[in-house]
Task: inverse folding
């Protein structure tokens, strides 16, 4: 399972191409990996009969002894070939080598047939998923509270077809606090005092936490989530968990960016230097203030790390049937690991990290976490159920 997640990750995470398929021109890591892992899950669900297939598909295997490994490889390869036809250098040789390691018999042939069928069905189900929507040039805001970014990223995410939600706006967050409110002032001053590059009251330990979570999310999440499939669980259970994680991540990301571009709220890096314009006497301006770590180029509210981390936490809690899950994550930015004894501890730390880094306001992280939790519950109450 981890082998094909890594192959798929290496395929998806190549830079966007100027020409080619929609996925090659606008790759979306969680969305594309969700398609891969759903095809794998459906293939093994068809062979084992243990779980309901995703998407209302009714594929079954003619032979319960079909090779599950062959089905996994064929499902992953089929999706990658269909979505990324011009990136075959990333997946064709690994597929050929993978198949060569499986005895060439009737079980392998049946597994290939099941996996190929699952891939074709998923590709047909996703079809034109909306990622190729034409977007007008972005016009940065100039009014107090408006996002100032030039050519911000992930604007098309809100138009991608969800996997389980009824719409991208289903779990839209409420409006951010008014600029003249006490709640905004409290959050403003926390980020100003903890998140600045100079003169911060932040501790060295808090800076370490902020930096830990600045690794690019596609690589960070894919590598760290892969660990959860390195267990003694059956292949179908590993496939189920990975499909759950990436499907929930995809829908949480779609919902999160729908809210972001709905409100287009400004980042601390704009809000603090321009505070004299916000109409709030409790928010002192600092024209030289900058965040201690780089700020992502998309609107502030809600915090995407809050959205995704909470969605992942709720998924792990659901799969293991407890929030008492001990695990370790690593970051290539700091070269360190962080260990957790509960899923909520991970969410709490990520929310803190975005404030310590000066990228977000506290309310944004909490609202993002609420959104991610609600998306995960919706998705998992309706999918990946036992037969």
Result:
């Amino acid at each position: 399972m981890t082998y094909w997640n890594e192959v798929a990750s290496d395929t998806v995470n190549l830079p966007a191409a100027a020409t080619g398929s929609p996925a090659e021109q606008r790759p979306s890591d969680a969305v594309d990996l969700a398609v891969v892992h759903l095809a794998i899950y459906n293939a093994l669900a068809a062979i084992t009969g243990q779980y309901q297939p995703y998407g209302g598909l009714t594929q079954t295997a003619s032979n319960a002894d079909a090779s599950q490994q062959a089905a996994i490889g064929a499902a992953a390869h089929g999706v990658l070939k269909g979505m990324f036809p011009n990136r075959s250098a990333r997946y064709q040789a690994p597929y050929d080598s993978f198949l060569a390691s499986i005895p060439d018999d009737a079980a392998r042939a049946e597994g290939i047939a099941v996996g190929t069928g699952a891939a074709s069905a998923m590709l047909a189900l996703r079809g034109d998923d909306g990622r190729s929507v034409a977007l007008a040039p972005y016009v940065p805001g100039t009014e107090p509270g408006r996002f100032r970014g030039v050519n911000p990223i992930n604007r098309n995410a809100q138009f991608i077809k969800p996997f389980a939600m009824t719409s991208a706006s289903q779990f839209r967050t409420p409006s951010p606090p008014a600029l003249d409110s006490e709640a905004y002032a409290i959050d403003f001053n926390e980020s100003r005092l903890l998140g600045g590059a100079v003169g911060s009251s932040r501790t060295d330990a808090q800076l370490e936490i902020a930096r830990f979570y600045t690794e690019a999310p596609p690589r960070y999440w894919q590598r760290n989530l892969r660990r959860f499939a390195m267990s003694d669980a059956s292949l179908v259970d590993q496939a189920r968990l990975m499909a759950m994680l990436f499907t929930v991540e995809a829908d949480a990301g779609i919902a999160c960016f729908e809210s972001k571009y709905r409100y287009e709220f400004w980042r601390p890096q704009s809000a603090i230097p321009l505070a004299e314009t916000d109409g709030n006497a409790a928010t002192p301006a600092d024209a030289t203030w900058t965040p201690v770590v780089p700020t992502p180029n998309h609107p502030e509210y809600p915090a995407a790390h809050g959205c995704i981390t909470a969605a992942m936490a709720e998924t792990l809690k659901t799969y293991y049937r407890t929030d008492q899950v001990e695990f370790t994550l690593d970051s290539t930015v700091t070269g360190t690991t962080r260990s957790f004894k509960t899923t909520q501890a991970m969410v709490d730390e990520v929310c803190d990290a975005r404030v310590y880094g000066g990228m977000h306001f506290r309310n944004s992280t909490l609202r993002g976490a609420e959104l991610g939790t609600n998306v995960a519950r919706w998705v998992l109450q309706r999918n990946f159920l036992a037969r």
